[in-house]
Amino acid sequence: MGFEEELDAILVKGKDNAAKDILTAVEKTYGEIPYIFQFMEYDSELLITKMLHNNAILRSSSLDAKTVELISVAVSAALRCSHCLKLHIRLAGNLGVPDDQVAAAIFLAGNLVNASVLATAARDLDEEREICRSCELASEACDIDGRGGD
């Protein structure tokens, strides 16, 4: 279904009935209703907007469903969202993604998170080394700590 057809269906059904239909479709697709959708169940506008956004992203993508799930596994692992991770591991398995590919996505996510932590901390450390502890100015501009410049 395209974007305009989705909007037309929402207008015809009304937001509350459209939201119920969305949850039914999500459950049929995923085999369950993910927590975030359960959380939005009582705010039809929020749920509908979220699903329109999700569907627009998927429609504009040339990625196949298995790749989308592997990305979802990796991001869920990186964000440390166990509910999301468990759901996307199940969905990847339902699509026939082998366990070794799921594990590779998790390991890659862990590797990237590790690199991100190290890079951020190293940059912060470098920046802090350049600051005078007495006046919190860049060392080159400060003579208080004896490193300032002539």
Task: Throw out a few tags for this protein.
2 domains, AhpD-like, 150 residues, mainly alpha
List the helices and strands and how they pair.
Layout: H1 3-13, H2 15-30, H3 35-39, H4 44-60, H5 65-79, H6 82-94, H7 99-129
Concise summary:
The chain is an all-alpha fold and 150 residues long. It has seven helices and no strands. The chain has helices at residues 3-13, 15-30, 35-39, 44-60, 65-79, 82-94, 99-129.
Describe the structure.
This protein is mostly helical and 150 residues long. It folds into two domains: 1-61, no CATH class; 63-150, AhpD-like. Helix content is 72%, strand content 0%. The protein contains seven helices and no strands. Helix 2 (15-30) packs across helix 4 (44-60). The longest helix has 31 residues, at 99-129. The model has no long low-confidence stretch (mean pLDDT 88).
Rg for CA atoms: 24 Å
Tally the helices.
Answer: 7
Estimated share of beta-strand residues: under 5%
The CATH architecture designation of the largest domain is: Up-down Bundle
- Encode the helix/strand succession as letters: HHHHHHH
The number of strands is 0
